[in-house]
Design a protein that fits this description.
This protein is an alpha/beta fold. It has 5 helices and 7 strands, in the order βββααβαβαββα. InterPro entries: AhpC/TSA, Peroxiredoxin, Peroxiredoxin_AhpC-typ, Peroxiredoxin_C, Thioredoxin-like_sf, Thioredoxin_domain.
Amino acid sequence: MTMQPTVAYPFAKVGLPAPEFTLPSTKNLETLEENVSLSDYRGKWLVLFFWPYDFTFVCPTEIVGFSDAYEQFKSLDCEVLGASVDSVYTHRAWIETPVDKNGIGPVRFPIASDFTKETAHAYGILSEEGAAHRGLFIIDPEGILRYQVVTDMNVGRSVDETLRVLQALQSGGLCPVNWKPGDKTLG
C-alpha cells in the first residue's frame, strides 16, 4: 500500500494551521521594539486583518471601527491584530497624526509591519503591486485558521459581521443563514 504524500499548501487554508509569523509592531509605541507572533495568541481567538497601505482613505475607517469594538472582541476571548506592508515607523506616524489630518489616533490593539511582505504572501493576499489586499482571518485558540475573507482594495470590511462570524464559530453548532447570537443552531 502506497502512502499519499502530504500536500503542502502555498497559502493559508481554512481548516489548517495558520501560517506562523513574527513581525515588528506598535505594541510598544515609544520604542517600536516589541514584535508580535502568532504564538503570542495561542489559547485565544485572533482576528488578524490586513489593509493595503497606511495614510489611505478606506483603511482608517476599518482600523478605527475595529478599535472602537475592541472591548466586544475582548469579551469574546478574542484579540485583534492589524497589519499592512508599511513600516512600524509609518504606523507610529499614522497613529500620532490627528484624525482630522488623515491620521487614526490611538488604537487599542497592536499594528504589525509586514515590511518584507512574507506574511501577506503566506496568507495569500499579496497583490502584484506589492500591497496587501484587505484580508481578514479568524484563527482559533489552537492556531487553526477558521475563517477568511478577502476583498478588493476599495471595499472595507464589516466589524459587525466579523463579530457575528466569531460568535458563530465559538458556538460550536451549525449556524444557518443570518444566524445571530442567541438564535438556535442546527446541531
